[in-house]
Amino acid sequence: xxxxxxxxxxxxxxxYYDTRDDLVREETDRRPLDPxxxxxxxxxxxxxxxxxxxxxxxxxxxxxxxADACPLCPSREGRDSEIPAPDYDVVVFENRFPSLxxxxxxxxxxxxxxxxxxxxxxxxxxxxxxxxxxxTDRTAELAELxxxxxxxxxxxxxxxxxxxxGHPHGQIYGYPFTTPRTALMLRSLAEHRERTGGRxxxxxxxxxxxxxxxxxxxxxxxxxxxxxxxxxxxYEVHLHPKRRVPxxxxxxxxxxxxxPQIYLELLRRFDRIFGPGEPPTPYISAWHQAPFxxxxxxxxxxxxxxxxxxxxxxxxxxxxxLAGSESGMNxxxxxxxxETAAERLREVASK
Length: 351
Known about the structure:
The protein is of the alpha+beta class. The chain contains six helices and 15 strands. It has helices spanning 125-143, 180-196, 201-212, 253-270, 324-329, 338-347; strands at 2-7, 13-18, 40-44, 51-55, 90-94, 106-111, 150-157, 169-175, 216-219, 223-226, 235-241, 283-288, 306-311, 313-315, 318-319. The strands form three sheets. An eleven-stranded antiparallel sheet has the order 1-2-5-6-8-7-12-13-11-10-9, with helices on both faces. The chain has a two-stranded antiparallel ribbon with strand order 3-4. Helix 1 (125-143) packs across helix 4 (253-270). It is globular. The model has no long low-confidence stretch (mean pLDDT 95).
């Protein structure tokens, strides 16, 4: 992998990740951009104890542009985009409309491929490996920023999820706090350790799923994917390395090598869940990593890196909406039994 750092016209950082070491990235951003202006504010909810990000400047962000005006495609003659180069492998750049910026953290965009009409599932194993390397590198870099406590790499896919740009891409958030979801995991981790005399919750969850087997979707030498026992979403898969590590930086070489095979197969199965002729399955793919600093960092060594992949589509043509119970009380009601979901995801395996 070759990494090249440059700056866009408004001062934002842009990074090229290339598979070839001999590529030279000298293109400049020729757009007459004004400096980025943000108005992010962090507000703590006194009743729930969580943090809400107020970011009014994001109201003017780019929304569903036509393909020939996509800001994530390479620049062409007469049309300059966010990426000055005429082609690229993987690109990461600071978001022009960030939810978090400055002392409040950092937001980045990850472009998985220059092909506007592709999806992550269309990538080759070499391309997927490069994305993993980019995620890992950004995790390492953002972990060094004093204002960042936790790094979150994720992909929103599909208009149903709320995606405003159709180009295959994801995002990376550097939060200045430990997120509520991670805080809940850390609390459960500590309670399990106390209750069992020192056992690790992540290890025990993975061991239980592998032993029962009914919810295991896919298993390799270094990774195991399963529908969790209490899945929140109609089709939800958790992907864990068999050797527990706290974050992407700590993955062993063998796990890195096998990851593209496992992950690409999972994504391709997701697109086959609802049968032939159905539109691409909308999904969220989210890496859960241990916090680097702050109160949540006390249990770093005990935390288990994992990826959660789920769709809000519950059946053909129907979405799972977060209505009264889910949105009002955070009590999920799942329409698809986890064992049924796992069986379906095994049925649609690649031949």
